[in-house]
Every structure is written in C-alpha cells, then in structure tokens.
Amino acid sequence: MSIEEDRAVQAAQDTVVRETDNGYRVLGSPEESVTHQHDIDRIPQFDVTQEMISESGENPEAWLTYGGNYEMHRYTTADVIGPDNVSDLEVEYDIRVGSGSSMEGSPVIVPGDPTVMYQSNGPNHIKAIDARNGDVLWSYTYAVPSDVVLCCDDNNRGPAVWQDKVYMTTLDSGVVALNRYTGEEEWYTSTADHERGYSATWAPIVQDGTLYTGSAGGEYGVRGFHTAIDAETGEEEWFTRTCPEEEWVGDSINQAAGTNWMSATYDEERDVLYMPVGNPGPDFDGSVRPGPNRNTCGTLCLDAETGERLWFHQESAHDVWDYDSASPRMLIRDLEFDHRDEIRDTVVNAGKTGWAYSMDAETGQLITRSDPGVQQLNMFSMTPHIDDGRRGTFMPGGMGGCDWHPATYNHETGLVYFKMHNNAQEAWWRFEEFEEGRKYWGGILEDETEAMPDEYNGHISSITAFDPTTGKLVWRDWIDSDTYIWGGTMSTTTGLMFAGTQNGQFIAYDAADGERLWEFDTGDAPLSSSPVSWYDPDEGKQYIAIQVGGSGWLRRGKRDDRVVVFSLAE
Fold it and tell me: Which pTM was predicted?
C-alpha cells in the first residue's frame, strides 16, 4: 500500500498550521486520531527493557532515547564509518513521510530483525519504519484540538519507547501512548490546559516505568512545571512547578513562565533529572516581575522519585532578552578540571547567551563558563520602552546563541559541539494586561533590525566545539545563509561529528579540528533536525538518519517531508 493511500498521512496533510496575531493555530485536524497499518507483522515483538535503555549509549545497534543515552551525549559506538572512509558514505534510501510540516525530530532506533525506526514530525504524526529499507509499517496522526495556540510552529522533536509502547507528546500539552507493534492508541494524558496556552513538542524520557515530561507556553503567561507519569497507565505520579513561589514578588508568580520545553537528562547514579528552563513571563517587561526571577533561564535539578527541587543554576537573572536556556543538558562523568585539581561529574549546556556552562552535577555550582561561541554585541543592554524613541538592538538576539539545539559530547576528543545563531534583533518593552490564552510578551521583538552593530561579522550561524573542562573554544565553522540554523549534532567513536545546516548541507567534520571531511547536498530545504546512527549486524552496515525540512517561527526556510538515511558497509 502506498503512502498516498495512508489515512493517517492524509489526516496530517489535511491539518493546516496558520500563523495568526496570537501565534500558530492548528486547523483541519481529524476529529479522532487515525492509525493506518501497513505491514505490522514485520515488527519484532519483544519488550524494550530498562536494561536495554540504560545500555543504549554503549550499544552500536540502538538509539533508544532522544539523546542516544540518558546522559544526552548523542554519540554512537558504531565504528564502521570513520575519517578514512566517510567519503564513501552513500544514500541508502530517501523517503517522504507525507506530512510536510515541522521536521525537527530525532528518531528512536529499536534493534531487531528488522531494526525499526520510530520517527515523528509535526503536526503530531508518527511512523514505524523498517530501518533497513524505509518501508512504512504503520502511521498515526493525533487529533489536535482546533483551539490549540503555539508560539513557534507545530513541532515534534521525537518519541520515546519502553516495553511494548512508543510515546509522543502532543500539541495540546499531553502525552499519547501507542502500541509500538500496531500503532493503536493505548492511553492519553493531558498535563495542562491547552486553552491557557500550554503545549508540548519535545521528546519525553522513560525510566523504570516512569515517563518524564515538561511544559511549554512561556509566551502566554503560563507557569512552568515538570511532571512524572506512570508509563503503563498514564496516571500522574508527581507534579512540580519550576519556579519557587517564596522567591517571587507578589502575584508575579502567577505568570512566571519558566517552562521546561525540552527533554530532561536523567542521572541513573543520583536518581535526579537535569532540565533546561526558559524565560520568565512576560518576556520583555521586567517591571511587573521584580527580582532575579529565580528558576528561569537556566538549569534545574529535580529528585526523580519525588519531584523535589534540589538546585538551580541561572544564566540570565531578571531576563528581558528572551534568553531561554533550552538545549538539553549533557551529563559527563569524571571530568578532570586541571585548574581546580578536581574530578567531577559535570552537567554541560550552552544557552542563548552564547556561552557554554559546566556545572557540578551534585550542587549546580558553576565550574567553567566558555569563551563566547558567537558575537556578543550590546548584550545585556537595557531593553528600551516602546515610547522612548530609541532602538534596542542586542546580540545574540532572542533566538540566541544556542536555542533548543541538542549538542553532542565526543568521548574520544573530550569536546562538546553546539549549533548557534549569530544575529542581532531588536526589542522594546511595554505594559500589557494579562489575558489567559493570549500572547503575553510585554513588548515587541523584531527579527529584522534597522541597522546591525558595526562590529557584526556578517555570519548568521556557527557550529562550534568547546572544551568543557577549560571553556576554551577549540574550533568554529561559520555558516552563511538567509535563514537560521536549527537542529542538533551527533558524533562517533571513530572521531567524526555530523551536523546539518539550514542550506541543506549534511556535513561530517573531523571532531578534533573541525575539518570538513564529507558533505552531501540534500536539496534546498534546511536540515532542522538532529541525526542519529546505528549498526545493523545482519546487513553489516552502519546507518545515519536525518529529517529534511524547514521549521521554526522565524526564517525557517522551505518546508519538506523527507527522511534521508545514509549507509556504509563493512
């Protein structure tokens, strides 16, 4: 049966995402969710066990969590592809998923005979695919309510698997569990009221029968949270607000935002979660929220069993520049800090500020802050009032720096690799009355500036390698384009680092020095997703998959609906 006859694909194609003065609206979604089965008998039936997920990072045949392992290293031990033969990498297959909406996802790879890829994209569409040849085994489209409002496109950044289920967050701030063999819905749980502006777009994580998921909607004056859900039943286990009421002034806590809108990182040894936290609300009017606005724009550590807040590291206190800190955290064990003569388990991330941060995993204490990955011009200058009659140009702009882009840690080089924006924007603040379910920015953000700072180097993006122990910028590749760079990076045990650009280029770098060793032109649509890799012993090949298509709410580039898989035989 062809993809053109797939009812779930048709439902996704009929779903229209339109930009309005209140954000993106999802229209034309099916009244009920749709599953279409193609060849489900091909899917091997066995439980994805906790042991398999815990060992995923060391298993070259699997990619069982969003980051490849709980530590979010986005690193594969598959070793067929290396610097000496990467030039022989070829396209194994190039398929259309049939739903040309946001393509920011990162697939999950379940080993077996055959290996199965679970791949998702906007608007809440997911497939099971035979990872050897690209055959679709089943498709599913979630019925998104028509009154959902979204700040930044109909993204879905990836699924999660556990035992016999596959999980996807939904645009109406929920989680849906599907039978991973049949694509049929098992349960749905709402985590918050989408009519108030809540939504969900990231990949959840699952550990020992508990699913962890966060919150989005910081541009609508919501209150951020993280929640734990029973992965078998969908019942809530705990619910924690990100921002502490006792550290906010008056009723400003009610629209505090501080949403956790990217995947959490799980520490199996400490049984804690490290999670990125976004901007305070409203974004640009700091006058209505005096103080540092604790637990926004930084890293929050929670007890995974109880949800208790343990520590927080803040990157931009009393933020009025929309400097979310959204990129998933990497947990790196036993890092040696020579300047301190210490060895520590370390949490590493980069933020919209353009710096990368290394924090003590036990306390949240900042150990190093990196060299800037991008230009910092007029940074932290006070945002002017809209009636002041002056410009408020600052750089990095509200897109960053590093936005949600997931990074990779390469075990051989000891370096971390980030995609970053290098562009100025303008912002003004103004007083706005809060109205539930309406945008609550407290100002205006302009992507096109009247004039760029004199010192601007003209490069809109960078791909940058840092040493997390010293903060030193080791190498950087400036990327030129008319659109922004999105998506993540991935590295290999053989010393390669892979990244896609907004110009459709998929690049293999020498992870040590940044030399481009191989490039492939996927077309004129951006690569806004995050690559994954695996080895299939029955085929004797290593594969790399990346989704193709523009996404995001500013300068996103051309839409597309493709998954391109590359391979190299032993």
Answer: 0.98
Q: Distance between CA 317 and CA 148 in Å, rounded?
A: 30
The one-letter amino acid code at 265 reads: T
Phi, psi for 41 (deg, rounded to 5): -65, -15
CA dihedral 74, 77, 78, 80 (to 10 degrees): 110
What is the percentage of the chain residues whose pLDDT exceeds 90? Answer: 93
Query: pLDDT per residue over 479-498, tens digit each?
Result: 999 999 999 999 999 999 99
Q: Are 15 and 28 in contact (CB under 8 A)?
A: yes
Peptide bond into 396 cis (omega under 30): yes
Q: Which of 122, 210, 111 is nearest to 158 (CA)?
A: 122
DSSP code at position 246? G
Per-residue pLDDT tens digits for 364-421? 999 999 999 999 999 999 899 989 888 889 999 999 999 999 999 999 999 999 999 9
Check pLDDT > 90 for residue 505. Answer: yes
CA-closest candidate to residue 114, choices 133, 127, 138, 91: 133
pLDDT at residue 1, rounded to an integer? 57
> Over 279-314, what HEC string results?
CECCCCCHHHCCCCCCCCCEEEEEECCCCCEEEEEE
Of the chain, the end-to-end C-alpha distance in Å amounts to 33
Six token digits for residue 143:
């019925």
**Burial class (CB within 10 angstroms; exposed 0-12, middle 13-18, buried 19+) of 245:** exposed
Angstrom CA distances, 541 to 79, 500, 533, stand at: 10, 22, 11
Query: Could you give the C-alpha distances from 247 to 284, 313, 365, 507, in angstroms and in order?
Result: 20, 14, 19, 45
Peptide bond preceding 123 in cis form (omega within 30 of 0): yes
User: Could you give the CA distance from residue 466 to residue 561 in angstroms, rounded to a whole number?
Assistant: 33
What is the phi/psi pair of residue 86, to 5°? -60, -25
Distance CA 124, CA 199 (A): 12
Report whether 157 contacts 104 (CB < 8 A): yes
**Cα–Cα separations (whole angstroms), residue 78 to 234, 286, 323, 568:** 34, 48, 36, 11
**Of 257, 274, 344, which is closest to residue 309 (Cα–Cα)?**
274
Amino acid at 147: D
Average pLDDT over residues 513-525: 97
What is the spatial distance between Cα 81 and Cα 103, in angstroms, rounded to a whole number? 25
**Rg of the chain (C-alpha set):** 22
Pick from 519, 525, 509: which is nearest to 566 by CA?
A: 519
Q: Which pLDDT score, from 0 to 100, does residue 517 have?
A: 98
**Mean model confidence pLDDT for the chain:** 96
Which residue type does 95 have? Answer: I
Q: What are phi and psi of 169, to 5 degrees?
A: -70, 155
Distance separating alpha carbons of residues 417 and 169, to the nearest angstrom? 27
Q: How many CB atoms lie within 10 A of CB 46?
A: 12
3-state secondary structure of 56: helix
CA distance 413 to 496: 10
